[in-house]
Amino acid sequence: METDRDLLAGKVIGQVMQKDLFSQWLGIEVVEIKEGYAKIKMTVRNEMMNGLGIVHGGIAFSLADSCFAFACNSRNVLSVALDTSINFLKPIHPGDELIAETKELHNGKGTGLYHVTITNQHQHIVAIFKGTCFRTNKTLVSV
């Protein structure tokens, strides 16, 4: 059941996505947004390959970073990355559909801690990402 806070989260991230040209270039689609939670997906394209013949690690990182940002900002409090890390577990290939899901581990007044899991269309975990955000005192949208 969708709460008023989840509706606000959807409104906030909808407006963020309108301005997020990089996430748009990646082909990211928002699947689900709730307070402290985000799920997004994208399809890997050929131009995302690196010179070694594999998908550039920055693609998985960028997908996770966008999902992290959406979850962090879902409460309409401008939040920015303070620290992030990623572990690559399996190779990613052109044509793969990647799904990133962010779960909030800690929601503090000044910081938040989040865990992002990236899976492919076979439900294989291809990467895990951890991010800490810093919360400002600014809002993103008027309510």
Mind explaining what this structure looks like?
- The structure is a single chain.
- The protein has three helices and six strands, in the order H-H-E-E-H-E-E-E-E.
- With 143 residues, it is an alpha+beta fold.
- The mean pLDDT is 95.
What features would you highlight for this structure?
143 residues; globular; alpha+beta; Thiol Ester Dehydrase, Chain A; single chain; 3 helices; six-stranded antiparallel beta sheet
Describe the secondary structure blueprint for this structure.
Blueprint: H1 4-19, H2 21-26, E1 29-34, E2 37-43, H3 57-72, E3 79-88, E4 97-107, E5 111-119, E6 125-135
Antiparallel strand pairs: 1-2, 2-4, 3-6, 4-5, 5-6
Summarize the structure.
The protein has about 140 residues and is an alpha+beta fold.
User: What structural class is derived from the secondary structure elements?
Assistant: alpha+beta
Q: How many separate domains?
A: 1
Beta content comes to 35-45%
Large-scale geometry = globular
What is the ordering of alpha helices and beta strands? HHEEHEEEE
Which residues form runs of ≥5 with pLDDT under 50?
A: none
C-alpha Rg, in Å? 15 Å
Looking at the overall shape, the CATH architecture is Roll
